[in-house]
UniProtKB/TrEMBL annotation:
Protein known as: Molybdopterin or thiamine biosynthesis adenylyltransferase
Domain THIF-type NAD/FAD binding fold: 306-472
Superkingdom in the source lineage: Bacteria
Transmembrane region(s): 247-269
Example of a GO MF term: nucleotidyltransferase activity
Chain coiled-coil ranges: none
Keyword Acyltransferase annotated: no
Keywords, comma-separated and alphabetical: Membrane, Nucleotidyltransferase, Transferase, Transmembrane, Transmembrane helix
Domain Prokaryotic E2 family B, residue spans: 45-133
PANTHER family: TRNA THREONYLCARBAMOYLADENOSINE DEHYDRATASE (PTHR43267)
Biological processes annotated in GO: cyclic threonylcarbamoyladenosine biosynthetic process
Length: 577
């Protein structure tokens, strides 16, 4: 362990300070092995508290005088220095780590109330302070916020257990309580406990001080100053209502570049006789801290694009690649997905599939599509997944017999690994002038690589171009194959009914990740032309089994589309262009 006395002695000498051993402050259950206090610059007394993990973790620093509303300082006086998880700490110079922390303390404490920098930093950390410094109450929120600026609207609050939940409807509340939280049906709610008045604030609105106790008149002033004239008029019209004893919940929505910020107040009225709310004097105000679990907030926290939630995708194939891909799409915010797969999920699929044995324990159908729908619905709130539970779930019956169905989607992805079916879908798209983009993704054997082919974005090529001879347009093996032609890679451990192409779950995840990136690029408008992508793995395992790689494996990977003027499917497009 580091000699902390020596560290502090070196800090005192280098900085001209006089820190001495002191009592141990505690916060959040932290246990400190040693603490040192002393006056620092003009900021009064501060305490440096060391955990046993120092110098692998920074010390905590507390300020004794917390009467000033400093940003980045907790009510207990702990100064939030930085997120140290991403920092590279020089553990060989522990005294310099302490000096660097003290420099950061000076920067934080020099941010004075009323300055532009103070307001900027307050906005960053506002929700960390609201409802913490003064008496507050916690509500949960799954409210899907109206996509409009400036509004005033009432929404229901539901009580479950000891908690209050802000939601759009009773159905939404019960879906969250029973499905997302997994509570039994006895926890379901029949009607709202009360209501909240939700107010959309103006763009660039100020934030109320979280460090002081607000009163009813300061709340009304805040609403008047931070809403447009119409919203303000509607609010004060509502406040003309005469009440004696009443509680109202007001939730504010502040629009920002990084998403909406939600906070609120509970106002209690205790009038001797019925009095207009806006004129009531005997009132109390308590801050509401909202713990958000709504879809937009969760997706944004996960790095997803909110613009994808209204996109609908058809995923063909729920096998090894398709299972991981479906999960990736949900995580990226593509929550409207139709799944089509005619196969059942078996124990032999477990070790290279997104789903494990827990899926086999489900009492429902053993269909891959049904099981994948169930797993994804359990993992992610607000997904809308259809497993297309037709009597015949083949692509031929559902899609090729009615190609116009493809026009209902923003994107079609095939993870079938069946080139004949993929080419039939490609032909249906081209011949019926259906503009829906089409992604085909599949693995090659023994971890040698995988492909993601994006077509139907531009008219110069199509999927058949990759399978057509350049001279005659006749059908030929896939032009981008990483293995030499005329080799059979199918394996069987238990007869013909259980054949498989050897590749691992890691290969499928790799292909699925690249396919998901292409899907997001298409749906966000970043990718607007056909594209061919190949990832290459190590060929040693394939070669050790006596197989050969193709010339393409050793060539550069083209990212542009492959065009073929002899293609029998899209050649008319070539002649027009």
């Amino acid at each position: 362990m580091v000699d902390l006395e020596k560290v502090i002695r070196d800090v005192n000498i280098k900085q001209g300070l006089s820190f001495q051993p002191s009592s141990h402050p505690t916060e959040d259950g932290n246990s400190y092995v040693a603490c040192y206090s002393g006056h620092y610059l003009s900021y009064g007394e501060i305490t440096i508290a060391f955990e046993a993990s120092f110098p692998y973790a920074l010390p905590d620093i507390f300020i004794k005088n917390t009467s000033k509303p400093h940003v980045h300082v907790t009510p207990a006086g702990k100064i939030c220095l930085t997120d140290e998880s991403a920092l590279l700490l020089d553990i060989n110079r522990p005294e310099q780590l302490v000096i660097d922390c003290l420099d950061r303390v000076a920067q934080i404490l020099s941010i004075l109330p009323g300055t532009d920098l103070y307001q900027e930093e307050l906005k960053k950390e506002f929700l960390s302070y609201w409802g913490i410094y003064t008496p507050g109450i916690i509500y949960f929120s799954i409210l899907q916020i109206p996509k409009k600026e400036g509004f005033i609207q009432e929404f229901p609050l539901f009580k479950y257990g000891k908690s209050l939940l802000l939601a759009n409807s009773t159905d939404d509340a019960n879906r969250y309580i029973c499905e997302t939280l997994g509570l039994d049906s006895t926890a379901a709610v029949d009607s709202p406990e009360e209501y909240a008045l939700v107010i959309g604030l103006k763009q660039g609105c100020a934030f109320p001080s979280p460090f002081k106790q607000h009163n009813w008149f300061s709340v009304m002033h805040y609403i008047r100053d931070n809403t447009d004239a119409q919203i303000s008029h509607e609010f004060f019209k509502l406040m003309n209502a005469r009440v004696k004893n009443k509680i109202i919940n007001i939730i504010f929505i502040s629009p920002g570049a990084d998403g909406n910020i939600l906070f609120g107040v509970v106002v209690g009225f205790s009038n001797r006789r019925k009095t207009p709310m806006k004129s009531s004097i005997k009132t109390s105000v308590m801050q509401i801290n909202l713990l958000r679990e709504d879809r937009d907030y969760l997706l944004a926290r996960g790095g997803s694009a909110l613009s994808l939630t209204d996109k609908r995708v058809l995923l063909l194939g729920c096998g090894s690649v398709g299972g991981y891909l479906a999960n990736n799409l949900c995580q990226m915010g593509i929550t409207q997905i139709d799944l089509l797969d005619k196969d059942t999920f078996k124990s032999e699929n477990v070790y290279r599939h997104f789903m494990g044995y827990d899926a086999l324990r489900r009492p429902s159908s053993k269909s891959k599509a049904d099981l994948l729908r169930g797993v994804l619905s359990d993992k992610y709130p607000d997904v809308d997944i259809d497993s297309m539970n037709y009597q015949d779930r083949s692509v031929e019956a559902v899609i090729l017999s009615n190609p116009e169905r493809l026009s209902q989607y923003d994107l079609v992805i095939s993870a079938l690994g069946e080139p004949t079916i993929n080419l039939a879908i490609n032909k249906a798209l081209v011949e019926n002038n259906i503009p829906t983009p089409f992604i085909v993704c599949f693995n090659e054997p023994y971890g040698i690589g995988g492909h993601v082919i994006t077509t139907n974005l531009s008219q110069k090529s199509c999927l058949r171009c990759y399978y057509s001879d350049f001279l005659e347009g006749t059908l030929r093996p896939f032009r981008g194959s990483l293995v030499a032609p005329n080799q059979n890679f199918k394996k069987s451990l238990s007869g013909c009914s259980s054949t498989f192409v050897p590749y691992s779950a890691l290969d499928s995840q790799q292909t699925a990740i690249h396919a998901a990136h292409k899907a997001v690029d298409i749906l966000t408008g970043k990718l607007n032309r056909n594209n061919f992508f190949t990832w290459r793995g190590d060929s040693s395992l394939l070669l050790s089994q006596g197989y050969e790689v193709s010339d393409f494996y050793n060539s550069e990977n083209p990212s542009d589309e492959i065009t073929n003027p002899k293609c029998p499917v899209c050649q008319r497009r070539h002649s027009v262009s």
